[in-house]
Amino acid sequence: MTKYLVQGGKPLFGEVEISGAKNAAVAIIPAALMVDGVCRIENIPQISDVTLCLRILEQLGANVRAINRHTVEIDCRKIHSTRTQQNPAGKIRASYYLVGALLGRFGQAEVAMPGGCNFGGLRPIDQHVKGFSALGAKVIVEGGFIHATSESDRLKGCSIYLDVVSVGATMNIMMAATMAEGNTVIENAAKEPHIVDLANFLNSMGANIRGAGTDTIKIRGVDRLSGGTYAIIPDQIEAGTYMAAVAATGGQVLVKNIIPKHMDCITAKLVEMGVEVEEHEDTLLVRRTGPLQKANVKTMPYPGFPTDMQPQITTVLSLAQGTSLVTEGVWSNRYRYVDELRRMGANIQVDEKTAVVEGVDHLTGAPIQAYDLRAGAAMVIAALAAHGESEISSVHYIERGYEDIIQKLRRLGADIRSVEEPEEAEERKAHIG
Ligand code: EPU
């Protein structure tokens, strides 16, 4: 049982290097299954979701070779199965991308129903199924598995209008359509940077995809993808999380290896709150010296303010002067972490999709829990800014998506460390508590 111990109240100073984007990597690695050759993927983040994705590919027969800490070579010429095992495919959300990839190349897929972050609500996949069906696949969910089979030799290109703007459905349909016969058009597509990244990866392997990053994506089916080299984009949310941490603690940090354009939606909100952000070619200098101002935030699909930054920005707003309104526009239930912030002295009321955040002078360290990946990042930010010591549990969620978070924060002067605690001690504490 790993926990993080944090002595809060220290401003952050220095430089932080942003890793490759988690939500691009967990789609691009499954997409490598479609490549009839060796693909070399660079700037892969060292996070547990990536480790699990690579393990699933190996179980299916891929040869995965680590070249260095952030580069792998994946050879999917000898795939021997289109059925995943329950473990670890059932553990991560992104395993749904295996359906699009396997179906796209082999015409069939059997994939354990995805797990991953639980925000307390359902995470439907009806739009993915709608897309696969329109391409000519039969899809059923049975025995904890998604079974998808092409009804003819090859999937057939088609036009699909998504009923909701879904990142996962857009990427999954894009993969399935890459080797379909003829042309596919996805309308009302999501526009996140990782969608463009997946399209660029597939194109660099021989696909013909146009329009990724707009709401209409056009795919001309090709017969085969062959190998190549591709580097994953920097992680917008990891960068945003460090920016939010500086906003909460004060200090000055150079956030390196980012694409400033991807950060605009986050930068604009922080500037509104009184944080200074200086943009350079692939870095942002973030500085907070004065008090934080209130702001209203509504999460939306890209280029709106990202839902994956909602817990972090709410945490920063809990320390701002005045009353802020946060509206969650993507997920129905993503405020479970607010109870933890309240334990630290935050004054936040949640009514369905809206959080009313009354800024307080300071937070106080407390034992707190990471409920999911981004809620966990918010707990780290709260603990760094709080007076006194905090102990964060369930940190495995955080390690799903943040590479070397402890080391990166320590280099910025944070007093944070990871400790292993035996389970019995945990239980004893729970009883005393
Ligand atoms: N939705 C449907 N039907 C579908 C798919 C989605 O109704 O078939 C709804 C969802 O319920 C939600 C909205 O559409 O209300 C958006 O969901 P989306 O499909 O875009 O989410 P996702 O692909 O499952 C990815 C990220 C999430 C991120 C969302 C939104 C991955 C592996 N996950 O999820 O990231 O919150 O997009 O940007 O890429 C995270 O990194 O912490 C994380 C949860």
Structure notes:
This protein is an alpha+beta fold. The protein has two domains: 2-19 and 234-432, UDP-n-acetylglucosamine1-carboxyvinyl-transferase, Chain; 22-231, Alpha-beta prism (UDP-n-acetylglucosamine1-carboxyvinyl-transferase, Chain). It contains 15 helices and 23 strands. The protein has helices at 22-31, 48-59, 86-89, 97-106, 126-134, 167-178, 193-204, 236-249, 260-272, 310-317, 338-343, 373-385, 396-399, 405-411, 423-432, and strands at residues 2-7, 12-17, 38-42, 63-68, 71-75, 108-112, 137-142, 145-150, 159-161, 183-187, 208-210, 216-220, 228-231, 251-256, 276-279, 283-288, 297-298, 323-327, 347-351, 354-358, 367-369, 389-393, 415-420. Strands 21-22-1-23 form a four-stranded mixed β-sheet. Strands 2-14-16-15 form a four-stranded mixed β-sheet. The protein has a four-stranded mixed β-sheet with strand order 4-5-3-13, with helices on one face. Helix 6 (167-178) links the parallel strand 9 and strand 10. Helix 1 (22-31) packs parallel to helix 7 (193-204), helix 6 (167-178) packs parallel to helix 7 (193-204) and helix 8 (236-249) packs parallel to helix 9. It is globular and about 65 Å long. The model is unreliable at 425-433 (pLDDT under 50). It binds uridine-diphosphate-2(N-acetylglucosaminyl) butyric acid (EPU).
